Records
---
Amino acid sequence: MDTIASFFSFITTPVSWVIVQFHTVYGSIFGPDTGWAWGLSIVSLVVLIRICLIPLFVKQIKATRAMQTLQPEMKKIQERYKNDKQRQSEEMMKLYKESGTNPLSSCLPILAQSPFFFALYHVLNGIASGKTIGVINDSLLESARKAHIFGAPLAAKFKDGADTLHALGATVTDVRVVTAVMIILMSASQFYTQRQLMTKNVDTSVKTPFMQQQKMLMYVFPIMFAVFGINFPVGVLVYWLTTNVWTMGQQMYVIRNNPTPGSKAQAAYLERLTGHVTHHGKVRRRSSRLIVKAIVAKGRDRNDAERKFINALSKAGLVAQADGSVVKGETQTVAHAEDGTPTAARRQQPKRQSKSQRQSGQKQPHEAEQEDEPSSASPSSPSLTKSDEPKDAAPTAPKQTPKPGSGTRSKAQSGQRKGGQRPKSPSKK
């Protein structure tokens, strides 16, 4: 561990300088030799580092979601080239290149803060051994050795003996109780963060080996923190507990406001967004508009939660647009398909008459109503009634009766087939 910490000694001076600047501020409030001044200095160092790492955290989220999206394709490649590992690796790299995904992007925040972690460990280890390091001179070293957090010195470890702890002004019981509680909190926060990711922000419609690996890491990481925690000084435990709590809160915010498509968190988010949009009649936040825009662009490829969201908007008389906005629409005249896309209204078919009604010439109710309505024609239009006929109209010529055998068709009687009858074919004997 000392070799790894020495490897990152190039950043020891900047880390120690930042701690001293925060200590100057908090020392004027709580006192320079108190555990609050030194403990809050370490907490402030964590907050400063994590704020600087927010862009990397955003890349981590995008990389994780991209990896989840590629899981079905990765599984097909593994099954296709399961006997050819080299070809399998080549196809994997080709898939990453085509999709623009880098698997190492999900590890960027951890890799970026590792130098700060080991530099802080190197600083606290120097305080425990009574050596000046970085910008920490003799007076600051003596002040840091006197600082206690709930009775445990900043440089004390769980495995330190009674003589070492007595030199730091503490007892074995106080140090081990404080360090054990902090190790438990550190492991529990890590477990909850990973469990929250697996249960709420993972696409449950895709079952891949990647999910099994994540479930395994959910139990492995807390055990690793517990094992390594007994070798960390109290100050490092403060640092790691603070960064775990920051990660947990940051992940809760991301899951609530920008969940993974197909996850339980997305269903809960769209349910909240539905109530908000139907109440205000529009999408207010820019992040919400981006999510609605992505849902509209999917078309028929939407999942159940997204289809439910589109249908709920349709029932409320709202229509989601391609730019992510929401406008009012006509729900009475426009029908909506299951996926939310508008479809043409169905034509209402007239009621079918029975055979006796067709033979007797009885009309349907809606046809009778149309005949009873007054005509909307203008007065200048010619009328078809008998009273409007001119008096001096010429008499019409009498109709000629067709001669038998002339080939003309006779009028069909009621219930009989119109047209000439087909001649019967002679029976074959």
---
Amino acid sequence: MTMITTTTAEEREAILGAVREYAETELAPFSGERDEKHLFPRESLHRGGELGLGGIYVREENGGTGLSRVDTVAIFEELAKGDPAVASYISIHNMVAWIIDTYGDDAQQSRWLPELTAMDGFGSYCLTEPGAGSDAAAIATSAVRDGDEFVLTGVKQFISGAGEAAVYVVMARTGDAGSGARGVSAFLVPGDAEGLSFGALEKKMGWHAQPTRQVIFDGVRVPASAMLGDEGTGFAIAMSALNGGRLNIAACSLGGAQWALDRAVQYVHERVAFGEPLAEKQSILFAVADMRTELQAARLMVRDGAQAVDEKAPDATMRCAMAKRFATDAGFDVANRALQLHGGYGYLQDYGIEKVVRDLRVHQILEGTNEIMRLIVGREMLRPAGSASMRSVASEPVRSAS
């Protein structure tokens, strides 16, 4: 099945209807089992590739669906209603595909994009290291030139899809230690490269349906042609991908929280306490009203950030940071309150609410912690009058769990 790529109101609804059907048939029914058994859904992801979910905003000429970021965030919200953990991995995969579509040369695009857009193979994004989180410009993984090759040595931390990916977008230092962000370059490393290995599966609070491991580079050799873009531009490439990543993860928070809220509304209608349904109690009415209001406010902020990216607005980075911070905080809070409304039943795995709470908690950390989002917004607000309207994206620190 090929996803529609135009975005009239009617066609947009057709797109979301197809995604909703996929989420309801391929994700939601298996969400609990995948969480309990830590199963990575390879076959379901491949079927998502047939739908067009492997390259949602990759250009059509490169096999993607070429959709806008406004359409993209609506898609991720629907996916997350089926399973936030799987939806979040699809976001990371799409970041990798977009990076190659945007910065790759013809040979790199031809090599990797057909496989990635079809989700016959998966992508991983390697930025964070054990000693470089929010200060990602301090990465130490090195890429040393040796004739027509680069030799990569170092360790990446918290990498989603590690051990499953066909290709890793790796940020490594080609400049000296004092060169900061300007000394970082980006490389495409195949998943079967000699010297590439992986740490043990991390034991995580949530996101059990996607593997998270260290990625270890022990003298991994790649041809010089594996470099993405120019030498020294890797950090800027990494940061440019994070606007979309932040919006996607914010949308995943919306979808997971909306699912939890819908279940809470259903539950309070069914549950009787002190002789009347919970839904008749004013405190419950106020609670669900606040939850719905906060999600709608967050949804509008996410759409605003997506529109800023689509329009290449000069303040897009700030608007994406605001949306990410607000929506991931609101999403976790709403899901947590939905658990509270279920009482003791919300704490049971059978109801699925506790899984969503666990999955959404990490959204406040990855793609830049919410503290870093405040830093980005605060710097912009306090910049001297007359200075550039937005700080360089490459100058912003970030914490990435992907």
---
Amino acid sequence: MPATTRTTLRRGLAAAAALPLFIGALASCGYGSEAKNNDEKKVAAEGAKLSADTVRLGYFPNLTHATALVGDQEGIFQKELGGTQLKVSTFNAGPSEIEALNADSIDIGFIGPSPSINGFTKSKGTNLRIVGGSASGGVKLVVNPAKIKSLDEVKGKRIATPQLGNTQDVAFLNWISEKGWSVDAQSGKGDVSVVRTDNKITPDAYKSGSIDGAWVPEPTASKLVSQGAKVLLDESDLWPDKKFVITNIIVSQKFLKAHPDVVEAVLRGSVKTNEWINANQDKAKASANAKLKELSGKPLGAKVIDSAWPSIQFIDDPLAATLRAQADHAVKAGLLKQPDLNGIYDLKALNKVLKAAGKPEVSDAGLGAK
């Protein structure tokens, strides 16, 4: 058999073998849009790899990471990656995700602003870049209404935050300072007792009466509300345009340099996921909850997720100016020395994706990589 004939035959057999996989992928695609053109169909059918065989993605089983939950659950990331395999790891705290990035256990992660800042500054700007945004908002001060009826009555009470120096802890310490009250940041002792409590046990701590309230992200805030707590303050009300970054997308600088096409594919997946979430709120909420059930063994109750979901905005803009402000708050609280954040952002790939999608580009607030 001539060489050209053998090559043609091999290609035909490969295409035939890939066809059932392609059909199955379309059937399971929860966001309801088939490939937009023949080129996309060809990529999906052939399982074309990008420059890496695998990309390892980290995120939290948390509603403020719903872009990751939904993008993973609906196969949106994997579709954009083609034949490059997506491997997912989940984390319960920012420091452990940063450790995984530093240890080369993950390549890309969804994570809050405080661990992004800490990871960047501790490595003297060598380990990560923020390449996109994912979500804004979703943080509330919820309290026992029998003990606290106004913001001024928070003074003298025991209020939980998730972790010393985490994003919500910094925000609460800054709010306390703005009220003119004094708290030692390290010990949490002062005019308000700041009780660092893992989100997983905060509802039990509230139920037992060992805390009087909490400054926490969703869905923890709504879990407390389901136990009778009241929302005293939504953190969004403290920010311009009611927007502040709660979830970033970070990547190791090593991976970004070696595989920019893979990073771009993940960002395309993120942008498409956010677009689908915002156009299909009920389906997206159900999708996120299905992924949470898979990860934790138990979905959120309807009362909790219905309360939590509307307070989170799913946006592609990393809101860089608010990250700078959050760093300033950590400095003011004494938790961070004045950081050099120059180069923490690299938004070139994101802006390329946004431009291709007909969306406005976003700013790095002067903190972009040169």
---
Amino acid sequence: MTVCLLLLSVVALTAAVPVPRTLTRALWPEREPVVGLWVWQCLVATVLLCCLTALVLGAAAVFHTVRDHVFAPAPPSVTAAYDLSTAPTWAAALTLLLACGAAWTTAMLARELVEARRRRGQTRAHLRERAPELPAGLGAAARGPLLVLEDEYPDAWWMPGNPPQLVVTTGALHRLTDHQLDAVLTHERDHARAHHDWLLHLSTALATGFPRIPLFAHFCDQTHRLVELAADDTASRRCGHLTTALALIELNQHRGVLSCASSHRLLGERVDRLLEPRPRLGRRHRALASAAAALVPLLPLLIVFGPGLTALA
């Protein structure tokens, strides 16, 4: 049991501190934002799994009731392999710390979801009061739920919900061409299709709850950045790089409001990236990178189940 807890701690610390700092300096996530998002999610899942499995294992060593429930289906040889008869003092302290961390994480996630739902409800009601009838002549660009807002500033964004709501201002309709409007709406529909709001809520809650942990801080920053790049790629594949870049510039001449508050900071990077496309990974390399990242969260499970599998063998 002691060895398992130590290995889980080493894996969690490695994934939480040096790996994210190295990943933020890498250039390939800019070319493959979808793969980059997947890698960040796998890193976060690895740390959370390490903490969860260490919590269960430590609680089983400290509390006989937990041990009886966790190892009830297992034969005596498996229980003996974990050596749960004695729990060192540091294991009890680690278990208490992990339990507090789990409760705090749950509270942060619940708070973020409740606040997001409240803000979304208020915004949706406010916008519906101001929205005129949908203008005719939008053509194929206006597929899906679309809300037109009377505003002289060109603006477009998406509002999560069921169903997701696309919002575009009359200023954007007057300024953008049909192809540019199609690119903007394609960008926003990609956010809704990929459920980027869940990633943003998760990353924000973890960064708020644990601001001193490099993984969660970088995860929040990179998620806000990579979801925009991923949606830009979807729009550029449908409408072209130049059209998407021009639409982005038109919408941000007055305010940086393509999709989220971080868009303005990323405007220069996103436009340069669209106007000067860089070589991307091949389909095979993307699949290999995604598969390799998916194997990383299995490490905590292998560490925890290793002694039991060895005992059964």
